Amino acid sequence: MTVTASAGETRSRPVQVWLLVWAVALAAVLVVFLLQDRLPWAVNYPASAVVPVADWVSALMRWIKSNLSWLTRSITAVLGVPLDFALNLLAKNFKIGHGADAYVLPRLSWVGVCAAAFIAGHAAGGRKLGLLVGGCFLYIALFGQWTSAMLTLGLISIAVPFCIVTGLFAGIWAWRKPWAERLIVSPALDLMQTIPTFAYLIPMLLLFGNSPVSAMIATAIFATPPMVRATMLGLSRVPSEIDDFSEMAGCTARQKLWRVLLPSARPTLMVGVNQVIMLALNMVIIASMIGAGGLGYDVLLALRALKVGEAMEAGLAIVALAIALDRLSQAIAHSQAKGHVHQEVSPSLWRRYPNLTLAIAILVVTTLFGLFVPALAVVPKAITFTTAPLWKAAVNWVTINFFDTIEAFRVALILNLLNPLRAFCEGFPWLGAVFLLGLAGYQLSGLRLAVLVAALTAFCAITGLWEKTMATVYLCGISAFIACLIGIPIGLMASRSDRFEKIVTPVIDTLQVLPSFCFIIPVVMLFRVGDVTAMIATIAFAVVPAIRYTNHGIRQVPPALIEAAKVSGCTPRQTFFRVQLPLALPEIMLGVNQTILMALAMIIICAMVGTRDLGQEVFIALSKADSGRGIVAGLAIAFIGIVADRLFSAWTAKARARLG
Prior knowledge:
The chain is mainly alpha-helical. It has 30 helices and two strands. The two termini are 24 Å apart.
């Protein structure tokens, strides 16, 4: 008994020490805040000490543009060839010759593309998937969005293979060279995934101009990281027995990689391909601002003109395209995981690939007939529909009948929650934030994390962006907090009821497929522009990881531990709260981490609806082509995400170690 007591005292002593340290630290920050008249430099970073990083970056970009324009023009010319071919094939027409003598070859027939989509879905997942994928393309055609959707699809069809090949080789290199993964690849991936999407557009606009090539390069940079991570993960998970067997069989290093390891890692690689497709679609929509055109440009124009119906129709077309591509790539990944790979060796191509041959034949035939039957070449206006007047009427009806309720809710939220929280965050001493976050890093993982977290936080202050940074933290923080308040209980209920999980899963799958643009449209209709709109759209976008990780965490608790709890006499409630929930806590916190990162990504998109934070800085920089201002603001946003990610990851690792 004495031993037990002393052990408990030994464990509790560090906790008591850290509680005392935190009490002293918080008291010190409070004193600094109260003495801000005497210590103004500790609360608001002095303007005279701001480091002009933005000016340095702008000067560097101007130098690159002046001295390396030959390189950027060469890249544009090389990438423009396949891109122009894809856009002409799907959305435009091929023009051979010049002037009046030019001969026009038609783009692919919309009927043929819909049929090919059905065949692809049927081959990957059966008739139900074929009807879904073909139906999505038919929906796009019948609602008059065909040309815009094909512009978007054309960009994706070139960007995605580029991302896959680049990500595959980068992942192989990082897997083979651990030092490269640790020092180069992982930090680069962290920056690529946390720098906001708008920040990618500014240097692309400056270096490559307002063109589809700029949009494609920005898309490739944004969408490549999942493929790199999937390649590293897939290769590291290949069983050692397979590796040993390939060496015993006399394979060279190259043969072992390409004929043994990569085929064994194919299921994980296909998951990476799926993520690349979805991120590329999301980025292509945003890249419409620098010349990509397509559905994203239609949404942007409609939102600027406050044309609710047109924005909603283009947004739903984006959703249809996203669902089709997501379900198709998931089905292919699933069939690869099960090993459904056609092994028949036949001299004739059509016997080896009957579905591909049939799809190509239909495309060729319908396109050629389109020369004589215009209805096959272009979607006839007589069969198209528009729901724009209905959406506008619905919004007008809601506005007229529920305006007072919606406005009262919006004003109450602003006055009682958002404004006080914003004032608290913007008034928080920058030196206190650097100190407290550094202390948290030291407690969780030691000096290295403390220095990293403190340095990244200080960057936001010394570049003169502290007030904008705290405005971003406030809006992202409240959105992520509410998303967790909603998502974690739903995840807990889903983990305890299979029936409820079957209801929730399609909803969160749909939310995950929706591009970020689409969350803004319905909220703007009801709440107009401002922080409330940004918060609601961000909650809807970021709630998915909280639900998914909570459900997964509870369900992955080993059944043997649950049986042991039951044998020891625990009630179902005690088993849940004292066994399952503590063991699932690291997974749940990982979901919270992902929720914060997704909220941060969405907050930047919400700069389009009037928020006043770092996202607005990037948005203004994009409109003025001010590369320095946009890149520095983008780095500040990325550093917020990296600080949150590192702290939560360290906390999760510590919790896992404590729970064994």
